[in-house]
């Protein structure tokens, strides 16, 4: 009988007149039949309230409750999905309570079950619990975990889950659930479609209201997290700016809760894409962020440094504001942080500030050349890149280069020229080019092998870059004997001094022997090495 029915329907297309037949299939002993029947009824119930009522009248609820504990996973999954949809119907909810199925639904939240089962079991619990806050809290906590998964977020949105979440936020009597509801919404804002839906339904203003008016730290924190994620969208940033979100975020920086400070700093980072917002934080925001750099919490320091990095990038006024707020010393202290993100962000702020000569001199007076050595030795490529860029921005005069050289900073810088990371290699080349500006530092760079490494890089089509070529040429200008042997010419600015020697042309990649080694060679039939020496004592 059941096999005959199975062959007569399409599990994706059933109407009211065939629904009764499919309900009968819920009593089949065959797992395949049960799975297909549940799948068909799920599609049927999705079409609206009328179909949910039809399934109730046809007696589908009771046999479906038994399938929640079926040994076959597919059957169990499909049955759970149906209840996630049916449980929004008030009459179905009433019957489910009479049938005492809550334990069976809760059992579907076991860790070994599939994510989709967790999703629909949570949805069912949420639907069943307006009258049961503890269950609703459990459902929201579960959603807070599973909505870290993209597919779960899509499922929640497609099943009107966001509407339920917004309703919870709008209900003062459910304020015990607001923390968890905001956490779920923050996760959902990872997806553009969800973001648009929340904006269109006024949800973003609701988030701002919670951030502004709540006195509960976790609510403030989760609201700020949601704002941070939403602010990566241009339309949302515009809306937030119109609602003066900046004032709210600055206020949250003063929270006693570290999580709230972190979330507010991250939201400021995102809002920096709006130029008006970026300007607002010049007087309000930057001083508070500088204070957060002194926090004992490493995550707080990292988030504050990120916000400052974004605020000062391509904005000289904000870079000045950071300096005026006595930010140089705490920024240099962050360079010794245990978190790579904090180090990279602090180095970025210092680089942005060093674009202005008065600030660069101030930074140099705070022992930047010694502090930057540890980041140069980092194993993290982002930290390496930002540290090398900071050297390029600050080693612009002989005193700074001398300090870097005497502190042992040239050795790790030269090693970065070997990096397989393009950005690290590019920024290290830039820094070497700057450091080669005086003869002593250039000579030390050559002694450490910078010239050899850059020559090797220049011969590689994939590793060569504009800065590696400039750095190589800059070092060559401080080693005129090698330059002349390699290129066969010197420019008008290349002044020959005593000790210059002409070995003759050498091929690229060939090492030029130093003068001391050449002096030890026996005479041969090769052309003589020409030496410039104006002193009387040879």
From TrEMBL:
Start-end of each ARM repeat: 284-316, 408-432
Highest taxon of source: Eukaryota
Keyword Repeat set for record: yes
InterPro entries named in the record: ARM-like (IPR011989), ARM-type_fold (IPR016024), ARM_ARMC5 (IPR055445), Armadillo (IPR000225), Armadillo-Ser/Thr_Kinase (IPR052441)
Gene (name only): ARMC3
Residues covered by the ARMC5-like ARM-repeats domain: 181-432
Protein name stated in the entry: Armadillo repeat containing 3
Keywords: Repeat
